[in-house]
Structure formats: structure tokens, C-alpha cells
Design goal:
The protein has helices at about 1-15, 45, 65-85, 95-110, 125-130, 150-155, 180-185, 195-205, 220-230, 245-255, 270-275, 295-305, 345-355, 355-365, 375, 385-395, 410-425, 430-445, and strands at about 55-65, 85-95, 115-120, 155-160, 160, 165-170, 170-175, 290-295, 310-315, 330-335, 370. By secondary structure, it is an alpha+beta fold. It has a six-stranded mixed beta sheet with strand order 2-1-3-10-6-11. The protein has a three-stranded antiparallel beta sheet with strand order 8-7-9, with helices on one face. About 45% of the residues are buried.
């Protein structure tokens, strides 16, 4: 078996070499209840320690990543095969773009791998095209759901059918820089409305003598718009693919960032951001706050350098008091091909990869904060990992149901929103023109 995994690792490294220089997807970082401590499924087949059929079975498993993640999966597969000696798993990996190019080719030919690491952005497309297995019949049997909350399970549902299980989650939050705030003599943002956050940004900028900025124009991120819409009881995009906002609402949002950009200069300028790209204003030590996904913390510490050992991590501003405006987003999921010849055994592999404490100990937070409590039980949380865990526990009262699975073409619209936010920062487009351009782009994407 050791030699088999050596060959796997060699082929995986060959695959990665072809895609060298490509980083992991940015989408990589909570549940109550307790699953089977062995990580095995709760069904009778799993307790027997063999394939559901009792016959020798071979599964193909594909993921994106690098050699570090490949080694983690190889160790995990070793453990799985020891527990289920009738099942052999052949794993392969590529860089993120190549992974999806390969899946497109396989989908066209009906040859997807049995089990796949999956990105949320593609879940609707593959589900609605009938390419992913309905996992419903395997939940609670081959796939133990005891350690997964209803919110977590709901993430993988498309059109009422469960086609994916989240391996890990992250949530929207605000990172702050205690060192810069101490130097400026300004207390950390204590919570409040979006207007109060803008005022706080101005206070930090003024107190530092414009050496650093309190933050930047948060209206350039579509996620901040989504948080506000959710507080109002709306979705960014509804289940039927229609937008949950009109031109007037988007205009209001973009105009609310006007004092953070342009002549007022209380937020970091777009020109400065361009100069330091690809490092963000926060990662470069030029801003004291940044709204983003909570799993970005380790990356920020790496960018800021050895003099930084801690960051602040607090809730985003509030739009409506008591609203369930935040949610847990999957950093990745596991899915099964609809054409697999071994659905039960594939489900057993998915169960092991999302529930096993031993797998949790191997991966830590490499795939994000584990969604399953049983997997978390295998991890010793320290430093930034512990801080992120504490943060997600602290926002439990603000966590609502996950929004509808992203529509096909969501990535295109997210990028258009970002580009228009950049142009607003440079002053090369008016809010009115930006709104018109975004709605024109939406019309193309939603009706293509």
C-alpha cells in the first residue's frame, strides 16, 4: 500500500508541475453535535470495515491544491484504506484553473471522477446539468450528519437536492491592526452602523496624520452589499436567478462610499492600492481595517511580517439590529459524480474526509475551519486558527441561512462589481454610469 501511495504522490506532483506557480483557490477557511469518534459512517456497512458491496472497489478522487495538500490527502487515504481494505482510492490533483478545465472535458464525455473536491461557484451549474449524485439517500447512513448543523447541510442543496457536503467554512468579518491603532491613539472600532464605521475610518486617518488610513472604500466589495441586503431580508440573487435589488438600491450603496474615496481622502486611495498590488492595503500595513472572509488572517500576518503576532477580528458593521445578515460560506465541498458505479462507497469516502478526527489532525485548517464537529475534535486550535474559531462562535446570533447557491455566471458579475468599484475609486466613472454598466452586465449573464 505504501508503494501505491508513493506512485500517487509522484503522479500528483507531475500534475502540479504542469501548473506550477498557480496558487490555491482563495476559497479555502461550525457545527454543534457529535459524530462517531472514529469518523466512520453510522450505517451498518461502515461498521463492518469493508466496501458496501463486500467486493473490491476502486474509486477515483480529484482535488485542486499543491504538494502539501496532496500529501495530506495521501495520508488521509491511507487511513481510509486501512479502515476499508476492500476499497482502493486513486487520487489526482491539479492547480485550480486546470482542475476545472479537466472537469469540463470530463463532464462533456460523462467521465467525472467518483468523488471530487468542489468549489461553491460551480455547484449550481453541475447540479442543474445532472452531473452530481443526489446525496439524500446516503445522509445519516453512509454519510454521518450528527456533527453537521442544518445550516451547514443547507449549503450543499440545489433546487431541493443535496449534491455537496461542505468540508469547511468561513464567514465575513473585519480584521483590524492593533499596532497601527495603538500608534494612532485610536481605539478599535467598537461596532455600530456603516456610517459610524466610515466616521471611524476618518478618525484613524486624521489621528495618524495621513500616514495610515482607517480603511478603504468598502463599497467596492459585492459581499458588503450582500450583507446589507440580507439585513433587509433580501438576497443578492434569488433562487430563480433574479437580483434581489434594483438600480436605486445599488446607487444608494455606491454613493455611501463617496466620502471614502475622491477628494475627501479619508480612505486609502485607489492609486495607492494599485501601487502595492497584489498586496492589499491591510496586508501592506497601510490601513487599520479590512472587511473580508475570516480565513484570510494567516495570509495577512505573513504579509505584515515578523513584527506582527496578532490581529483584531470583529463583526462587520450593522445594517439592521438583530438581523441574520451573516452566514457560513463553504471554502470547499465534496461531491460525487452522478455516473459513479459505486455510490455507497463514494459516500463512505466523503464521510471519512469530512468527519474523521484523524483527517482533521492531518489537515488542521488547510481547507478552512472544519464544518464537522467530529473533525474539529481532532485539531488543536492555536494562534490565528483559535481566533477564527472564536470569532465564528461569537457571531452565532448573526448567522442566518446560507443564500441560494451562486447562479451560473456569478463569478463574472463579482469581477465586474470589483472592476467598477476600482473605477469609482479612480473617479473615471460616475455612480450612475457604474450602475448602468452593472445592470447591463447582469442582463447578459442572467439571460444567456
Amino acid at each position: 500500500m505504501v508503494n501505491v501511495h508513493k506512485r500517487r504522490r509522484f503522479m500528483a506532483l507531475v500534475a502540479l508541475t504542469a501548473a506550477s506557480g498557480i496558487a490555491l483557490s482563495a476559497c479555502s477557511s461550525d457545527a454543534e453535535g457529535e459524530a462517531d469518534p472514529t469518523g466512520s459512517a453510522s450505517g451498518e456497512e461502515s461498521s463492518e470495515g469493508e466496501a458496501a458491496s463486500g467486493e473490491d472497489v476502486t474509486l477515483d478522487f480529484a482535488f485542486w491544491g499543491n504538494d502539501v495538500r496532496a500529501d495530506m490527502y495521501a495520508q488521509s487515504i491511507d487511513l481510509f484504506e486501512e479502515q476499508y481494505p476492500n476499497i482502493t482510492v486513486n487520487e489526482t490533483f491539479l492547480g485550480f484553473p486546470e482542475f476545472w478545465e479537466k472537469r469540463q472535458t470530463e463532464a462533456a464525455g460523462g467521465g467525472l471522477p467518483d468523488v471530487m473536491q468542489f468549489d461553491y461557484s460551480y455547484l449550481r451549474q453541475y447540479s442543474q446539468n445532472g452531473l452530481l449524485l443526489d446525496l439524500g439517500p446516503y445522509l445519516g447512513s453512509e454519510i454521518n450528519t450528527d456533527g453537521l448543523t442544518e445550516q451547514i447541510l443547507g449549503i450543499g442543496v440545489v433546487d431541493g437536492v443535496t449534491t455537496g457536503i461542505a468540508t469547511s467554512t468561513n464567514a465575513w468579518g473585519m480584521y483590524t491592526n492593533p499596532k497601527l491603532l495603538d500608534e494612532a491613539g485610536v481605539a478599535e472600532f467598537g461596532g455600530g452602523t456603516w456610517d459610524e464605521y466610515s466616521e471611524w475610518i476618518g478618525e484613524v486617518t486624521a489621528a495618524s496624520g495621513d500616514d495610515v488610513y482607517g480603511g478603504g472604500d468598502y463599497t467596492g466589495r459585492i459581499q458588503n452589499f450582500e450583507v446589507q441586503l440580507r439585513a433587509e431580508g433580501k438576497n443578492l440573487f434569488n433562487e430563480d436567478g433574479t437580483p434581489g435589488f434594483d438600480e436605486a438600491r445599488l446607487t444608494e450603496f455606491w454613493e455611501s462610499g463617496s466620502e471614502l474615496r475622491g477628494e475627501n481622502n479619508i480612505g486609502i486611495s485607489q492609486q495607492k492600492l494599485e501601487e502595492i498590488y497584489p498586496i492589499s492595503g491591510f496586508g501592506g500595513g497601510f490601513t487599520a481595517s479590512e472587511l473580508t472572509w475570516d480565513n484570510f488572517g494567516a495570509g495577512y500576518l505573513g504579509e505584515l511580517g515578523e513584527s506582527y503576532t496578532e490581529l483584531g477580528l470583529i463583526e462587520p458593521p450593522v445594517t439592521v439590529e438583530g438581523a441574520k445578515d451573516l452566514y457560513q460560506k463553504p471554502s470547499m465541498l465534496h461531491t460525487i459524480s452522478a455516473n459513479t458505479e459505486h455510490p455507497a462507497e463514494s459516500a463512505m469516502l466523503v464521510d471519512f474526509l469530512i468527519n474523521s478526527p484523524e483527517v482533521g489532525a492531518i489537515f488542521g485548517t488547510n481547507r478552512g475551519l472544519p464544518a464537522s464537529q467530529s473533525m474539529r475534535d481532532g485539531i488543536t486550535f492555536e494562534g490565528m486558527d483559535a481566533q477564527i474559531l472564536e470569532y465564528e462562535e461569537s457571531i452565532a446570533d448573526r448567522l442566518g441561512d446560507a443564500p441560494p447557491v451562486p447562479l451560473v455566471g456569478y463569478g463574472t458579475l463579482e469581477e465586474k462589481f470589483r472592476v467598477l468599484g476600482t473605477e469609482l475609486g479612480f473617479g473615471t466613472v460616475t455612480v450612475e454610469d457604474a450602475v448602468s454598466q452593472f445592470f447591463a452586465e447582469m442582463d447578459v449573464v442572467l439571460n444567456s
